[in-house]
Every structure is written in structure tokens, then in C-alpha cells.
Design a protein that fits this description.
With 85 residues, the protein is an alpha+beta fold. 26% of the residues lie in helices and 32% in strands.
Length: 85
């Protein structure tokens, strides 16, 4: 399953995008199984904070930096560290 993470905002307003295929990354596959995107709160506007747009297969969610926790945070960090754009 394709996972795409786009991080925008922050102090400089720069955008960073990375993607992986969970078939090639078992760690990502395990994390995906632990995530319920329905429980992710909508991002609240906050100055100089990042917003993450996360696509997992055909599902999409946006989440603010302050609300990025648990397996979703681990997945985002993993994709940004191991994915190419």
C-alpha cells in the first residue's frame, strides 16, 4: 500500500513530501494496522506549526503537529526518513 506524507507550514513555510510502499517496508505495514484515521482530529490553525497531509492507500487525513501521536507519528517519521519524493 502506498503511503504519502506531505509536511507543510512551520516557521519557513517549506513543504516536504515523501512516499513509500508498505510492501517494501514491513515496519510501515505494522504501523498502518495500528492506525484508525477516523480518530484523527482536524488540524487547528497554529502559527509556525507543521501540518501533515497523510495518504494511506485511498484514505487521506490532515493533522496538526500538536495532534500527531502514537503509531501515526511513528509512521510519519518513518516515511519522512525512508521515503523518496
Amino acid at each position: 500500500m502506498k503511503v504519502i506524507v506531505t509536511r507543510s507550514g512551520g516557521f519557513a513555510g517549506m513543504v516536504r513530501r515523501a512516499e513509500i510502499d508498505s510492501a517494501d517496508h514491513p515496519v510501515a505495514g505494522r504501523l498502518i494496522d495500528e492506525i484508525d484515521l477516523g480518530e484523527v482530529p482536524e488540524p487547528a490553525p497554529a502559527a509556525d506549526r507543521f501540518v501533515y497531509d497523510i495518504e494511506i492507500g485511498d484514505r487521506h487525513v490532515s493533522v496538526g503537529e500538536a495532534d500527531l501521536h502514537g503509531p501515526l507519528r511513528e509512521l510519519v517519521d518513518y516515511v519522512l526518513a525512508h521515503g523518496g519524493s
